[in-house]
Every structure is written in C-alpha cells, then in structure tokens.
Design goal:
234 residues, alpha/beta, two-stranded antiparallel sheet, 5 helices, 26% helix, binds cytidine-5'-triphosphate, binds calcium ion
C-alpha cells in the first residue's frame, strides 16, 4: 500500500491541508489557543508536494516552517480558517483538516489590554465556533475526498476508538484519522515527532497506523485518498 512518495502519483491533483492551531483573541496580547505545532499538517503538505500535487496550506500559527512550493494562506482564527477553507475547497480534489480548531472563542475581544489595575477578575463569555469540517462535508462535490483528524482520549463513556467511530458518523467525512493522546510523556500526538492511531473509513473498516513518523502517516493518508479517487464509492 505505502508508496512512500517514490512516484509522482498525485500529479494533476490539488489538495488543501489545514495545519496548526487557531488562536482566539481575548485582547490585543492574549488568546485562547491549543498545543498543536502544525507538524502533521506540514508533513501532509510536504508529502503531497513530493508526490506531485498542487498544495494549498491553511496555516494556523505553525511552529515549524511550511515547505517551499506550497501556497500558504494564514488562518489565525477559526473564523479565518472557515472562510479560507470554504473559498479553497471548490477547486480541491481533497481537503484534509489536520488543524486543531478552537471549539469556543470569546464573544468579544477587548480593544485594549485587560488590566489587573481595573480590579476584579474578568469574566470571559465564550461562544461556539463554526465546524469547518462539517461545512466542507455539506459542500463536498462528487469525487472530492474530505479527511478529518481526531485526537481522542478514552473516558468513562468509551475508549478512544469508540469516540472516533462516533465522530466519523457524526461528521460524515470520508476518512477520519484517530490518534490516541495521552498526557505528558506519552509518545504520540501533540508536539511529538511520532504519531500512531487508526484511519477509519466512512463505509466501515479501519486501517491501523503503525507507530512511525508524521511523514509516514501522511503518506498513508494520501495512499487512502488516492484509492478513493481511483474507485469512488457509489
Ligand atoms: N474541526 C473543524 N472545525 C471545528 C472543530 C474541529 O473543522 N470548529 C475539525 C478538526 O480539524 C478535525 C475534526 O474536526 O479534523 C475533529 O476535531 P475534533 O476537535 O476532534 O472534533 P470536535 O467535533 O470539535 O469534537 P470534540 O472536540 O468535542 O471532541
Ligand atoms: Ca474540538
């Protein structure tokens, strides 16, 4: 299955990848953010480029450089990511949502820095952001492949994989890459060099992801996307 980027098998394809983590501003100097480095999304962009695709990278505060040769669209917030994704998707053969998108944002952003000297503790009211992946699925055209990522932990209501299956059903994307994440010291997921998990397929079935590099996972994702271009589901 793994072609390892030896062939330019994605030539003629245009793919859109989101990467990094959005930041939702509280005031001019503070934000609500997350720990995504953007490494997985950048690995997806790098491998797609190496395999001949045209790549648009929706970049949300990457901690690592974007590869030369991809079109980079900065998307600082969830709202900016939604706009850029909806704008880019109609011309894309695949859209991969590897970014960690804020689920909630402050209802208002203070125009000036919030000061302690004002007294009291600020109460921050949050509102939910739009679900970009759901918007992409709703607008998906024939032959387009939409991929989501989910970092899950097991809890009282189920293990990480059970949460992943429920999420795939709820989101309706073609592929969902599920990573089990742990706390500090866990070898996979946020900020690490390595990733492991399983890719869930919309029609059922799952492809295990061996513990390996983020590039290896990226190549596996493109292999599975490419298979769907070759044999679209009814
Ligand atoms: N996602 C998105 N827009 C959001 C939130 C998430 O497009 N506002 C995308 C992510 O990029 C990822 C997928 O949805 O590809 C799953 O993200 P995740 O945070 O796991 O799912 P949520 O639906 O936000 O559920 P929860 O965080 O409550 O588990
Ligand atoms: Ca979320």
């Amino acid at each position: 299955l793994a072609r390892g980027g030896l062939a330019r098998d994605l030539a003629g394809r245009h793919v859109v990848v989101s990467a990094g983590g959005t930041r939702e501003p509280l005031d001019p100097v503070r934000f609500l953010g997350n720990r995504s480095s953007g490494r997985q999304g950048v690995a997806l962009a790098t491998t797609a480029l190496a395999r001949g695709a045209r790549v648009t990278l929706l970049a949300a505060h990457l901690a690592v450089p974007a590869p030369a040769g991809v079109e980079v669209v900065p998307v600082p917030t969830a709202a900016a990511l939604l706009d850029a994704a909806v704008a880019a998707a109609p011309l894309a053969d695949a859209v991969v949502m590897a970014a960690a998108v804020a689920d909630f944002r402050p209802v208002t952003t203070a125009a000036t820095k919030i000061k302690k000297s004002r007294g009291g503790v600020p109460q921050v009211e949050l509102e939910q952001t739009a679900d970009v992946l759901a918007a992409l699925v709703a607008a998906r055209r024939d032959g387009q492949v939409v991929v989501g990522f989910a970092a899950e932990t097991g809890d009282a209501s189920g293990d990480a994989l059970a949460h992943g299956r429920a999420k795939l059903a709820a989101k309706g994307c073609d592929l969902l890459v599920v990573n089990e994440v742990g706390g500090p010291g866990h070898p996979t997921g946020f900020e690490g060099e390595r990733n492991a998990g399983v890719v869930l397929l919309r029609e059922g079935g799952e492809v295990p992801v061996p513990l390996g590099s983020k590039e290896a996972l990226a190549d596996l994702v493109w292999d599975l996307v490419s298979e769907r271009w070759d044999s679209p589901l009814p």
